[in-house]
Structures
1.
Amino acid sequence: MKSNIALIGFMGTGKSAVGSELSRRLGTDLVEVDDLIAERAGKSIPEIFSEDGEAAFRKLEMEAVAEVSRREGVVISCGGGVVLDPKNVDRLKMSSVVVLLTAPVEEILHRADRDGGSRPLLNIPDREARVRELLTFRQPLYLRAADYIVDTSGLNPEEIAEAIIGCLMEES
Ligand code: S3P
């Protein structure tokens, strides 16, 4: 029985805001995988990337995913790169209905600008090229991992949470 909802998707697709709204509506805890990683590492995500490198971050991410996948009845908001390792996807899928949030590149870039330098992978001059390159590689991985896909274009977090709850009710 899958009692968790895991939100996946590229950076800037609204996973955190939607996760927060979804957990509020369902009366469950929200687990932010990135927050768990930062807590365990004792430093921020940008610090992990700059001091220890991406490989070290991915290792911590895998440990965090294994930990949250053992929980029950929670909403899990995943970092955008969680799908890169199939082990993460397998673990999430054992305990969670996996919902993919998508957004147009323009929206992703807008949110990355708004959030400043909090995303190390986008901290480069030509962000658009990087976003397109990462998306091209990751898109099939996101699609393969997803039980449901919600296009977030033009929707606010409340509406997206409602769409997700609609999908889940149809399933049950
Ligand atoms: C990453 C996404 C980030 C964070 C890290 C790496 C990625 O999370 O985990 O910077 O590889 O896409 P968000 O998707 O919440 O921004």
2.
Amino acid sequence: MRSYTLIAPAKINLYLEIIGARPDGYHELAMILQSIDLADKIDVRSISVDTIRVHCNHPQVPTDKSNLAYRAAELMATQFPEAFSKYGGVEITIKKHIPVAAGLAGGSTNAAAVLVGIDLLWKLGLTQSELEELGATLGSDVPFCIAGGTAIATGRGEQLSPLPSLDNIYVVLAKYRSLEVSTAWAYKTYRQQFGNSYIRDTDSLTARANAVHSGEIVKAILNKDAREIAQKLHNDLERVVLPAYPQVLQLREVFATQEGVLGTMMSGSGPTVFALLESEQQAQAVKLHLREAIPDEDLELFVTRMITHGIQVASSV
Ligand code: ATP
């Protein structure tokens, strides 16, 4: 096989709690991550020249070493130098559908696809946990993106506990095309404003992170109770992003007034806001109403749904 085409789904956060500061400078988080049916298409192909090349159809996405997909290929090349010299270089082509810098893990899922694609291309036979371990060195969301579905993520977000998958809940996403929120800014601002309330001792940090496993939203997920899940959505980063970005707050408010919306929340560090619904018909109606309520061409709206998987192979040649 000389090339694989992979489907790389986005994620939303059903839950994001900032528990405290870690000695390594990152935040200790408790999150619930959910894959959605909005995905990039990644082509990973062996080439005869000994190099890594990235192409992307989206003007805001870099194609140099700062692209997370590039860094994933580079990591594989350094980890498996014999395979790299045996199979030659790698050409990665990214067809972007996931909005960029949106809190939807667009870069992370591309990196996850490249890890899976190169594992297949070079016939390495890595296990899921080996791939997740490699992914964790690239970014906190990368391990989740590999298997996807529904999962609790603790630590920096790389420690995963799968939950029974949700799949028949519909999601409307709203994002202003030209509005980007830096993840680093959101966490830094949160630390400045709320750092005093961080839990600092290791035992209490662990206890709090473990508490999410028996939390109310997890119970709702175990019961596959869409209404209850929607009532328990939570994202600490809204405390800094909503006051700084009134447009995001407005999306949240307009979603909340729509018929059929079970709950609404910002995803990750934003600025994407999502709403949960029980049927596709309701989701389409909400999309239409939102378009009427906010007639701004910069506003992108997507109807999608929760899915039970992460990276998938679409074809191989
Ligand atoms: P997360 O939810 O994991 O915080 P995000 O969805 O907020 O991620 P990304 O779409 O991953 O954000 O983009 C963040 C930045 O990373 C962008 O400014 C972009 O320039 C850069 N980037 C690097 N590689 C990629 C990639 N493959 N796809 C998208 N953006 C990328």
